[in-house]
Amino acid sequence: MAKATEAEVKEILQTTLTDEEITPFLAAADALVTDVLADEGYADSLLKEIKRWLTAHFVAIRDPQVSKEKIGDVDATYQGKTSLGLNHTSYGQQVMVLDHHGKLAEIAQSKGPAEVKTIA
What we know:
Layout (H helix, E strand, L loop, with lengths): L5 H8 L5 H19 L6 H19 L3 E5 L4 E4 L11 H9 L4 H7 L11
Antiparallel strand pairs: 1-2
């Protein structure tokens, strides 16, 4: 499966973040996409794009994007509500377009904790 690079993520984010600052988010996106989408029949090129946009989404959650600015008496509003899942950022919204099977959106919108059963 093709891997996205830090440089490719920076193209989307248009950021001055270093590769080292992006690497943990890229690793998380790679692990999630590999685990959830590897068997969904997507081309490697599409999986790579999903990883790239998902990484940008993860970065934007940590460093929220300004959604509204005001210059006089400086005011800024940032994107974000944790309950929005992939809708939290424009990058996550792009992930949902690319993952047209909806698997990542389904995970992001799942409610409640996972249930674990043990056999005694």
